[in-house]
Design brief:
Shape: elongated
Radius of gyration: 59 Å
Strand content: 5-15%
Helix content: 25-40%
Order of helices and strands: HHEEEEEE
Structural class: alpha+beta
Length: 208
């Protein structure tokens, strides 16, 4: 029989044999020691406190609180605005009233003209006599004119006044002795004014 082969294999002969009483190293002692993984919550998110290297961030500065409004100034502004609204409302009401009155007067003026013509014709037919019916109609006419005057509508019969193209309508010119040129010598039909507004210009004859 051949003698057993005591030749070392795989480099085992390079390491010295441990002496008596010296601990034998194991393979487990050569593995590095690692820290345990941080715990996770139910959603799989690692809490910030589990990472000691994370530093807390400084909180953002809070915005300055809004300044307190000037209540006195707001009150004065609202009061002035309310007063302006009231003035505009009163002005609109006055304008509407004037328009209504002027429109009604324009509808009544032709009737007043016809009444005047009818009374003039009736008085001319009566001659020197006096008819109680004609006198009664003349009173009704005067009452109608007075009603218009109470709301600001006045008749304009400018005989003897200088001609004003803004108030009068010249229908003819005629020579007149002793009368200056441009003076009204005859009124065909009276005009009517409502304040500063001319509802109807007076139709007149002007001296040359």
């Amino acid at each position: 029989m051949s003698a057993p082969d005591h030749t070392p294999q795989d480099g085992a002969g390079d390491q010295p044999a441990p002496e008596a009483g010296e601990p034998v190293p194991t393979a487990a002692a050569e593995e590095p020691v690692t820290a345990p993984d941080p715990p996770e919550d139910h959603d799989g998110v690692v809490p910030v406190s589990a990472h000691p290297e994370a530093e807390p961030e400084d909180p953002a500065p809070l915005p300055d609180p809004p300044a307190e409004p000037d209540f006195k100034d707001l009150y004065l502004r609202e009061r002035a605005e309310l007063e302006n609204v009231r003035k505009r409302a009163r002005r609109d009401v006055e304008v509407s009233q004037k328009r209504g009155i002027a429109r009604l007067a324009k509808e009544l003026l032709p009737a007043l003209d016809n009444l005047e013509r009818a009374l003039a014709a009736a008085q001319a037919a009566e001659g020197d006599g006096q008819d109680h019916i004609t006198s009664g109609l003349r009173l009704v006419q005067q009452e109608l004119i007075a009603s218009l005057e109470r709301v600001g509508i006045v008749a304009d019969a400018p005989a003897g006044e200088p001609f004003d193209p803004h108030r009068h309508e010249a229908v003819a010119q005629t020579p007149a002795e002793g009368v200056e040129s441009g003076v009204i010598v005859e009124v065909y039909s009276a005009g009517y004014r409502f304040g500063d507004d001319v509802l109807r210009a007076a139709k007149v004859v002007v001296a040359q």
